Amino acid sequence: xxFCGVDHGRxxxxxxxxxxxxxxxxxxxxxxxxxxxxxxxxKTTIIKQMKILHISGFSxxxxxxxxxxYGETQGSRNFLDRVEEVRQINYEPTIQDILHSxxxxxxxxxxxxxxxxxxxxxxxSLNFWMFxxxxxxxxxxxxxxxxxxxxxxxxxxxxxxxxLVIREDEETNRLQESIDIFQSVWHSxxxxxxxxxxxxxxxxxxxxxxxxxxxxxxxxxxxYVTYKLESRDRDSEEDEEYLRTRCxxxxxxxxxxxxxxxxxxxxxxxxxxxxxxxxxxxCYCHFTTATDTNNVKIVFEDVHNxxxxxxLKEIGVSIS
Length: 320
Ligand SMILES: Nc1nc2c(ncn2[C@@H]2O[C@H](COP(=O)(O)OP(=O)(O)OP(=O)(O)O)[C@@H](O)[C@H]2O)c(=O)[nH]1
Ligand SMILES: [Mg+2]
Description:
By secondary structure, the protein is α/β, with parallel strands linked by helices. It is built from ten helices and eight strands. Helix 7 (174-186) links the parallel strand 4 (152-158) and strand 5. The radius of gyration is 22 Å and the shape is globular. Bound molecules: guanosine-5'-triphosphate and magnesium ion. Pfam families: G-alpha (PF00503).
């Protein structure tokens, strides 16, 4: 009996392997990822990193625009220190200059790249398309144009901006704006079948802000005062206040992803509405520093595997 069970198990896993590898071979369509998030959250920086990691770097044109793109205060401090050098006619931006430069996105950009699939998921490679949009208020009405056919949303959050206001009205808290945008895209009927991955970005700046004692998130989000760090989020080698702050921010996004809502569905007759069930979507959070190529490389290995798994699940294969 026992042997029979093992044989059966082996046969099943062989069948599964065959199914995955056939799917991988046949899946010639590109997997589409959409970057969303408020202005200055780091979307275009992720696109730049994909160019470094999966395409052959930058075009001369993007090097040229770097010279004009040093508007941001936090991200490009060392760039500003070198303003004289940058003004020189023969100035050649370094990769770091390009990653730290800032130019507000006002159009929709698409990049294509290929990613190797780990052997355990059938090997070979998959094509990815990644879309970048502008995150400022006026730009968001264009988002819907790219919602169709998207498999995964990468939602960027500038986690360090808990004490800043948005440029658009110089009043709304930046982190709150980000939470509100997440809430609306998470519940969007057009993205109901997408997987969501949240990048809690600018961890380098967040850490520095908190560890230096200059800023406390509790001054802007009073519920922080009673927030307790769970033991699984502790790390004896990391500053406790920083860990508490980043987990507090993460939990704000997780709480939204757990809200059970039924949205208004089809109108059956005036005043009579059929309620649509929310489909179960998955949401994963990562702490990231988008300007750090190595950090992005590691995080994306996870992201790609996650997306491959979501796609396999769609065809009825689940891998633990
Ligand atoms: N220090 C640091 N700077 C970052 C990080 N991520 C992005 N930046 C900087 O933040 C600025 C804004 O980043 P972008 O990638 O242009 O932001 P965006 O989301 O594309 O902004 P919009 O196009 O306006 O929607 C740039 O100067 C980046 O270099 C990070 O993790 N750490
Ligand atoms: Mg951008």
